[in-house]
Amino acid sequence: MEKPKLEVCLSPALLHLYNTEEAVVVIIDVFRATSTIATALYNKAKAVIPVANVDECIELGNSIENSVTAGERNGHIVEGLQHGNSPSEYGREFIEGKTLVLTTTNGTKLLHMIHGADTIITGSFVNLSAVCDFLVKKNRNVLLACAAWKDRFNLEDTLFAGAVVNTVKDCFDINCDSARAAETLYNSMDGGQPIDFLRNSSHYRRLSAYGLENDMAYCATIDLHPVVPYLKHTELLIHEPIL
Amino acid sequence: MEKPKLEVCLSPALLHLYNTEEAVVVIIDVFRATSTIATALYNKAKAVIPVANVDECIELGNSIENSVTAGERNGHIVEGLQHGNSPSEYGREFIEGKTLVLTTTNGTKLLHMIHGADTIITGSFVNLSAVCDFLVKKNRNVLLACAAWKDRFNLEDTLFAGAVVNTVKDCFDINCDSARAAETLYNSMDGGQPIDFLRNSSHYRRLSAYGLENDMAYCATIDLHPVVPYLKHTELLIHEPIL
Smallest CA–CA separation between B156 and chain A, in Å? Predict the structure, then answer.
């Protein structure tokens, strides 16, 4: 039987080169959108609604009962919003039962660029194994889509893509140089921790300047939150396990 | 003293994210344009004129005395042109004193997309050390620009960029995740030969189907042709050594 294909897209500016029709698309924004999304849903948020800009975030927050609006730019909570992009803000005692309306620089924008996919899910190290298990059981073509930084290639999203490739490669037909490069990056860690590899990345340096080292260590921790967030209409919810 | 910057652009579709003004831009199309260019000039071609399309190639070939037109698509010489893209076609006995008018799928197109640069040069493994030496002596901002494959990231151009980063990094300020990833790929060879790393690349598979394995082994051989091709108006010529 023919295996489904798996490809890796390194930047939203390259998305037009890939066919997402009927595929499972994994949105990857390790620092920090897709780490925060997995955290909030694992901690029983009712839903996470990703929005592309601040105005939409405020408007939606006003119209939804028991909601929290969240978004940062340059390490600070955006004026008019209530919370930031840090996963540490979304513990169970705070977020349980609430709807998180979230805008971020890269990840939520990419999510809205995907059209015609069978399923859109979000991935980060915190839900690595759950994502891999989902992809294998779905048995469909996969695009791992890195959110990057303002369209620039970044290490953390690519490293996560490499971790997925390394885990699921026997179940897919992979003829994609981006996937090979991502896996080579992952293998270069040689059993080390992702955060050690990522300390020299542009984004780590940027967020360190805001004192967010703990956030990044959290985002790079494997399998803290074994859930698969998927997009249902406009909301991200936890996908039921596929048996 | 502040060091100049070095960045790596992984695809022409990302070129708009980089500032090439007053920079040295290295066009990289390992399989095979920039390998063939170095070969022809090393073998005393009078000049290589890179052109974006076949019509221009034929027209220019007709207007220049003692010229050779060259271009392939899908592994075959394009109708109306005289030669292919293989470096093996451009031995000294054939190309000495002639002007090579060359069109290729990716490299020559990228070259025409660069604006405002101080100097545009071409790089491949065959002239790796000459390129590195040039960049260090020029002491200006550098963009290593991968030609990629129809805008898709490729391994061979990125691996070459990584080889350059690895060689010159002490002389530049590098805060670019693409450069870090490229160098990690290069280091993952662990002293091995580029061609061994590249046998699993998309382009290797594509060109192998046309029986071009020897071509690719040639293109991945380090320092066969220690020249620095640079663009002067519309022609690529050998740059004088910088003392």
Answer: 9
